[in-house]
Amino acid sequence: MKVVRSVAAMSRLAAAWKNCVVLVPTMGALHEGHLSLIDRARRAAGREGTVVVSIFVNPLQFGPKEDLSRYPRPLRRDLALCRERGVDLVFHPDADEMYAPGRSVTVDESLLTGGLCGRSRPGHFSGVCTVVAKLFNLVRPHAAVFGQKDYQQLAIIRRMVRDLNFPLEIIGSETVRESDGLALSSRNVYLTPAERAEAPVIRRALLLAGKRVRAGERDAGILRGVIEKELAAAPLGRVDYAEVVDAETLQPVARVERPTLLAVAAYFGRTRLIDNLVVSLK
Amino acid sequence: MKVVRSVAAMSRLAAAWKNCVVLVPTMGALHEGHLSLIDRARRAAGREGTVVVSIFVNPLQFGPKEDLSRYPRPLRRDLALCRERGVDLVFHPDADEMYAPGRSVTVDESLLTGGLCGRSRPGHFSGVCTVVAKLFNLVRPHAAVFGQKDYQQLAIIRRMVRDLNFPLEIIGSETVRESDGLALSSRNVYLTPAERAEAPVIRRALLLAGKRVRAGERDAGILRGVIEKELAAAPLGRVDYAEVVDAETLQPVARVERPTLLAVAAYFGRTRLIDNLVVSLK
């Protein structure tokens, strides 16, 4: 497994790709969720193809009060996991390599970024789009894999690829969960045992609302109420948002009439967790 | 010479490039200035290389009161000129091909865009960056050629390539002029004979100021005064700006101490013309 730290070296390698290359962009602190993205990348690349994992804690996507400095960075463990999982190349630049002093260019999305996580994290998705555009240009993959847990991010990246004509395919990969339903996240390590015990309430709330849709409920307000009531049962949790939005445009809907996203963000202590469920009528 | 109108066909062709590809992005209405960019592209691509000219009047870079609808579109003549000049491929999409309904992603530059043309044309450079990023992704050239007449645009595109790591080289190509010094522009056709007779004053004013720098003048205010006074001698002209800025950051300077850009935009009737001169101390 090759480990590349410089932007120039990455770019040189990418210019010479002959086979199918699939990228898995990560911020490291890899867990089974990431490993399932890597497996998905391998299936897309084929045995002869090249699977590239980028590990970069992107300062641009953290707000001034967020957890940039304490975000976990277990690099040695991450590299061992990548090696075990058959990754061909890890691209692990540092921030000075990625961002020139006086950098002044960003990629911005204006329709899907306003709600959900964009509301409480202004600038976050501009940071995500900008770093992902850079990674696409540096690695020049034929496809890239993103997790569906970060549904809004996945939708925005798809939009960026469409609107800027990036020559690659975006693959969404299913959320991996603990046995009690909690979605895997690098931030789960922040949870105290008591918080960890309560955190699966997010998934339970989403499933309850999903069940109501299957039973015929269409009213978004009622569904939001179902989610909020269930979340309120967890005394350590504080809801950031519980939303019912169109699964494509991410705009709030009054009724479930097309594929619809139920999305939750909630704090447990200082740790912000997200999860989602797509429901449809059929 | 191949003429490609669909985005899908262009992308398919680009995926199969084997040799060196050089792009000349244009809005058509080609004149000798464009043809010199095409010649520059051929020199960069080599005889075996591929020279691609894009012809696309990009609605995103026109303001609501600008000349989008009357911008000249002499397509047949443009194609004939490209053929004569040995262009290999013309990419000529229409606006519906380039912009999906509900498009929501832009590329934005925040440092170089505020002054000069950016002040009187808000949103212009976001439109330029966005379409150029799309063209880079669709055509995947090894290099792209831009004219130095549009100095600010060239500086912003260089910045975009650096900050987003586009894997290509930007080549700046010298301004081509009429014998009386007027910089060639597709907009020159708008000028009445009387306006056309006065328009070379822009170049004269810049050269006068340049002469003063060579004679030892360093004060930006005095140099601006030299330019403005000369421009005032043309009764049909109306100055939009006359600026003395750092040639790299495009920020206003008080004194000429590093390479410095003298830049002018002036209206003759409804027609807005620009030109510039880089001066240095050496």
Chain-wise SSE layout:
The structure is a homodimer of 282-residue chains.
Chain A: E1 2-4, H1 7-15, E2 21-26, H2 32-45, E3 50-55, H3 75-84, E4 89-91, H4 95-98, E5 105-109, H5 117-120, H6 124-139, E6 143-147, H7 151-164, E7 169-173, H8 193-198, H9 201-214, H10 220-232, E8 237-246, E9 260-268, E10 271-279
Helix pairs in contact in A: 6-7, 9-10
- What helical percentage do the residues of chain A reach? 25-40%
**Unreliable residue stretches of chain A:** none
In the residues of chain A, how many domains can be counted? 2
The secondary-structure class of chain A comes to alpha/beta
Question: Could you explain how this protein is built, in words?
Answer:
Two copies of one chain form a homodimer. Chain A is an alpha/beta fold. Chain A folds into two domains: 2-173, 3-Layer(aba) Sandwich (Rossmann fold), CATH 3.40.50; 186-277, Pantoate-beta-alanine ligase, C-terminal domain (Pantoate--beta-alanine Ligase, Chain: A,domain 2). Helix content of chain A is 37%, strand content 22%. The first copy, chain A, has helices at residues 7-15, 32-45, 75-84, 95-98, 117-120, 124-139, 151-164, 193-198, 201-214, 220-232; strands at 2-4, 21-26, 50-55, 89-91, 105-109, 143-147, 169-173, 237-246, 260-268, 271-279. In chain A, the strands form two sheets. A six-stranded parallel β-sheet of chain A has the order 1-4-3-2-6-7, sandwiched between helices. In chain A, strands 8-9-10 form a three-stranded antiparallel β-sheet. In chain A, α7 (151-164) links the parallel β6 and β7 (169-173). The longest helix of chain A has 16 residues, at 124-139. The model of chain A has no long low-confidence stretch (mean pLDDT 97). The A-B interface holds A 7, 11, 14-15, 99-100, 102-112, 129-130, 133-134, 137-138, 140, 159-160, 162-167, 249 and B 7, 11, 14-15, 99-100, 102-112, 129-130, 133-134, 137-138, 140, 159-160, 162-167, 249. β5 (105-109) of chain A pairs antiparallel with β5 of chain B, so a sheet runs across the interface.
